Amino acid sequence: MDINDFEVKLKEQYLLLSSHLNEKSKRLWAATEAQLYGYGGIIAVNRATRISKKTIHKGLSEIKNDKTLETKRIRKVGGGRKKITSHDNKLLQDLDRLIDPATRGDPESPLRWTSKSLRKLEEEMKTRGHKISYWAIRKILKEQKYSLQSNCKRHEGSNHIDRDEQFKHIHKKATLFLNKDQPVISVDTKKKELVGNFKNNGKEWEKIKSPIEVEAYDFPSKAKGKVAPYGVYDLGLNKGWVSVGISSDTAEFAVNSIRTWWLKMGKAAYNNVNEILITADCGGSNGYRVKLWKRELQKLTNELKVNIHVCHFPPGTSKWNKIEHRLFSYISKNWRGRPLVSLETVVNLIRNTTTKKGLQIKAILDKNIYQKGIKVSKQEMDKLNIKTDIFHPEWNYMLRPT
């Protein structure tokens, strides 16, 4: 057979067999074909299969001397390419220092303030005298238990010295109110959402290869506006109220949401109410330093003719507020994977959020426009009928009707 025809035939055979052969059987097959062809067989097999001449010679030697390996082994003990770390003692140490220079004692590393991609790691390792490819770096990082990870939200700031005591204070007061059948509500603003055909995190069951198509970029210019859902969660009844605001998230908006909750839900649910307890974060539109928040609460107190008690969670503990994990988290789960294409969609998805424990939510669209930057004078603050607690009066206070 002509050598060219032999190479063509051999190439076809190799394409069919290669995926079924391991290193050992591939070596012996190549050697057998070369031996059967005779003179020039090694070169022909090398050209047709790209199997190295050295490997083919090794296979011929094994056949000739009957030194085939045990059935379960592919190569002899210690055979194969050695790991790069076996002949480069400083490689792991230098790579470790590059990955985390702030904690490994190398603050001058050029990678400290740049993205540590595999190719940048490769460039920096080469400048340090290491001959290594980015692919080998990837393999080593996996062996060293590294992986690609995103940031994890966990740290909320330093703990206040009276953090636990304030938690106990809130718990004691809430228990007292619930035992007397007086409303205890947790309030907060959910993060603002863009209204439009934008991607919403999460997944929903759809027909295979038929995802909901949304805008590639969440540009505010393409949005139909923003919404700020302000929630009121009733701890005693496991019911929620959400006012979906289309304006600014101000203290006026916050207090009006509480007012609407009382008129639409709270008033019908409670009899002989003399007091209401509100638990809130220490910042945002309902923060303890916001003068407008207290002024608007005074107005609400005068309207309802009840005492309104307020307890703020300490700084850095917003996630402990009941509304976060008993109301907002379930709303986020309910609308996951669904674009908030309209105001009606937002309101309906909130309304239809339920849990196995019987959570009920009502929601409306608040179309009022709330002005930002309203200043409250000292004279107005002096007129407030406010009584502060002995324990952290800035966090715990009561507004009474004037």
Q: Give the biggest beta sheet.
A: 9 strands, mixed
CATH homology group of the largest domain: Ribonuclease H-like superfamily/Ribonuclease H
> What would CATH call the architecture of the largest domain?
2-Layer Sandwich
CATH topology of the largest domain: Nucleotidyltransferase, domain 5
Distance between the termini: 111 Å
Record field, number of beta strands: 9
Classification by helices and strands: alpha/beta
Number of helices: 13
Share in helix: 25-40%
Written as H for each helix and E for each strand, in order along the chain, the element string is HHHHHHHHEEEEHEHEHHEHEE
Query: What is the overall shape?
Result: elongated
- Extract low-pLDDT stretches: none
Oligomer type? single chain
Number of domains: 3
CATH class of the largest domain: Alpha Beta
Characterise this structure.
This protein folds into three domains: 62 residues; 60 residues; 227 residues, Nucleotidyltransferase, domain 5, CATH 3.30.420. It is elongated. The longest helix has 19 residues. Strands 1, 2, 3, 4, 5, 6, 7, 8 and 9 form a nine-stranded mixed sheet that branches. The protein is α/β, with parallel strands linked by helices and 402 residues long. Helix 2 packs across helix 4 and helix 9 packs parallel to helix 10. The N and C termini lie far apart (111 Å). Helix content is 39%, strand content 12%.
